[in-house]
Amino acid sequence: MPTDPELVRLRHHGDTEVGGGLADLAVNVRTGTPPAWLRRVLTDSVAGLAAYPDGAAARAAVAARHGRPPDEVLLTSGAAEAFVLLARALTPRQALVVHPQFTEPEAALRDAGHPVARHVLRAEAGFRLDPSALPSDADLVVVGNPTNPTSVLHPADAVASLARPGRVLVVDEAFADTVPGERESLAGRRDVPGLVVLRSLTKTWGLAGLRIGYVLAEPQLIARLEAAQPLWPVSSPALAAAIACSTPDALAEAEAAARTNAADRDHLLSRLASLPGVRVHGTPAASFVLIELHGADAVRLDLREAGFAVRRGDTFPGLDTNWLRIAVRDRATTDAFCAALAEVLTRRASGGLSRDGAAASA
């Protein structure tokens, strides 16, 4: 376990917020998953566990899904492993992480002893990416798209313009399949030098416990990352899931889920807009929404008392205790959550006490 306070903060994730019968709006995994057909695939794969896993078929399936050759694909034990492999295999002189975003890339780089600089996007600008504002000397740049926790989707051309000779450009697309049409994705682009795209099957298919993700990059870089992996890094059930989730039927189901998510997100945004003091910066595009709310750290604890878990925002660089991330859920869950949030805000505004004992009107 890390002892550096900053690494401890970076290693805080939404799963630590849930449990105890709380309604989960802290973890961005689609509810009701994995679907029954995918559970059957996983169950059937158990019959082959006596053999060592062979990733060739899964690699080919993922490659075909993105219109790339198999040597441009590396299957990983979740997208999180990919960040560790990049930190182990590369030797950047100056790594740059665009924040606020998923904290594991920076944590992995720090663990490997690499110097890491931060470029923090501003809430006042809607957390939009301005490629011209990034320093030119960074030889490793990491950016999320759509970005966790802001839910902002950057234009693909803006992200691609970050590429430079001698630079590795890592784009975390773990939530790309939660966006209808996967618009602004660079997963199929083979013309951007130094581009590395990371994908995950966790969010849409509910496979957080299975650990399956993949890297898309030029063959030479894939070979370097693969050399940093242990033998048989991805289990047979995870390989079966990668094949199953790359089929046309699965892709159609993911697209339908993304469209449902978009409608449910619009409903959440409309409910949040009616609450006093709640602000959303930028245009959310993924399966979660980031809100700014004075005293959000105390509100989060009050919401736990009301039966709802949300993700604290202050462990993301660039954010403080006035931010919360809320997962998109079905309308009934959203309505119940927003009613609880409204009650908490009303109690605080009328002079009730926050969780830390300070006057709510302070």
CATH H-level superfamily of the largest domain: Type I PLP-dependent aspartate aminotransferase-like (Major domain)
CA distance, first residue to last residue: 37 Å
Helix amount? 25-40%
| Count of distinct strands | 11
Beta-strand content: 5-15%
- The helix-and-strand class reads alpha/beta
Largest sheet: 7 strands, mixed
Question: Which oligomerization state do the chains in this entry correspond to?
Answer: single chain
Mean pLDDT: 95
The CATH architecture of the largest domain is 3-Layer(aba) Sandwich
Helix-strand pattern, N to C? HEHHEHEHEEHEEHEHHHEHEEH
Number of domains: 2
Q: Would you give the CATH topology of the largest domain?
A: Aspartate Aminotransferase, domain 2
Highest-level CATH class of the largest domain: Alpha Beta
Order of the strands making up the biggest sheet: 2-8-7-6-5-3-4
* Annotation field: number of helices: 12
Overall geometric form: globular
Rg, rounded, reads 21 Å
Residue windows where pLDDT falls under 50 for at least 5 positions: 357-362
